[in-house]
Amino acid sequence: MSFHDTTFHIGPMKYPEAAPVRHLAAFLFSALLLTGCSTTVTYHANLPPGPAKPTGFPIHVYTENMTVPRPCVVIGTVAVGGGHFTMRGGSAEDETKKIIKTAWEKGADAVQVRSVEEPGYTSGNYSMVADLLRYTDVWETIPITRQGFGNYLETRRQSLDPIEGVWDGTGTIPHRIGIMRDNSRPGREFVGFILNTPDPTWHEGYKKIDIRRGVQPGSYILDYYLDDFSGKEITVILGQNVRFTLNMPISDEDADTITYTKRR
Questions:
Q1: With 156 labelled, which of 53, 87, 119, 245 sits at a CA distance of 20 to 30 A?
Q2: Residue 181 CA from chain centroid, whole number
Q3: What residues contact 110, with CB distance under 8 A and at least 6 apart?
């Protein structure tokens, strides 16, 4: 390259102008919005843990103001929050999954959330504190075997009430229940109990429905127990029908339609 190909700058050298402080602050604020911290889980035990639940076992989660439908004790408290910096993300659902995982490991039956803190200036993720609960009661179980129930239906064939028998239920989780006469509890004339289900919440023999006759002929009032063991009162008209349908709430927005068809 010749001398004439070279360009010289005469005078003070100009450098790129520095960003004003306010622009830098805005940049840093934007960076904070994009970064957060992956949460860590800490656990404080109040009682010894129980047998671990299998992964996927349905654990019901209640908010602080909700009433847990069964008596229980707090076996421990789990907190989710803090951690090292990473890209901001996560959600209350993500953090709840970590709490449920701890509930499985500690053998809890249910979870009650005590506090939820949304992402803010100091954290890019949700922070949550929840109690792990253990039921202290024993759910009513009908002391009859499948063969014993079959004998019950056979020997009383001529005097059975229309609602007595074996019923197949469709819905989110198909299952089978038996219904037989039982007035061992005040206000109850019949009881429905689990014969078969893949749902690990419900064991064979567990009570599923308390039943009494309604005022109208052929009607029955059902105290139907949902998967969290809370009860819902429903009236059905059976008459000579061999089928009835229930619309059971799953959440504030969804419902599960369960149709029971008499098998025997």
A1: 245
A2: 32
A3: 59, 60, 61, 62, 68, 72, 103, 132, 133, 135, 228
In a domain, 76, yes or no: yes
User: Which of 42, 78, 33 shows the shortest CA–CA distance to 59?
Assistant: 78
Closest to 231 (Cα-Cα) out of 251, 210, 247, 259? 210
**One domain for residues 71 and 175:** no
> Does residue 212 surpass a pLDDT of 50?
yes
Q: Is the pTM of this model over 0.70?
A: yes
In a domain, 16, yes or no: no
Range in 7-11, 101-105, 139-143, 208-212 the model is least confident about: 7-11
Note whether 206 and 199 are within 8 A (CB).
Answer: no
Angstrom distance (rounded) from CA 250 to CA 255: 5
Residues 94 and 55 in one domain: yes
Q: How far apart are CA 30 and CA 261, in angstroms?
A: 59
The verdict on residue 154 lying in a domain is yes
Number of separate domains in the chain: 2
- Tokens describing residue 155: 């020997």
Lowest mean pLDDT segment, chosen from 37-41, 75-79, 139-143, 256-260: 37-41
Q: Distance (Å, rounded) from C-alpha 120 to C-alpha 95?
A: 16
Is 255 inside a domain boundary?
A: yes
